Amino acid sequence: MMISIGYRNYLLAERIVAIVSPETRPTRNLIAGAKERGMLVDATMGKKTKSVIVTNSNHVVLSANSADTIVHRIEISEVKIGVDEEN
Known about the structure:
The two termini are 18 Å apart. Helix content is 38%, strand content 30%. The longest helix is centred in the C-terminal third of the chain and has 20 residues, at 67-86. By secondary structure, the protein is of the alpha+beta class. The radius of gyration is 14 Å and the shape is elongated.
């Protein structure tokens, strides 16, 4: 299931390992490390980074949407899948 992470950018929900706040020192170190390895994807379109998404492929994705918004979208998609499976 593809999840919108803002500005017409989508991420496969099954690949998400963690969604964290960008304001902590460890997260900033994670972003810097991913940038050095070429594993950083900036999907903010120049806007302020509100969440950092870590995938199971070790990519780090910056999003202008908050973690709460992304989690809510994942929950809604899971509910829709459950409803579709019942029908």
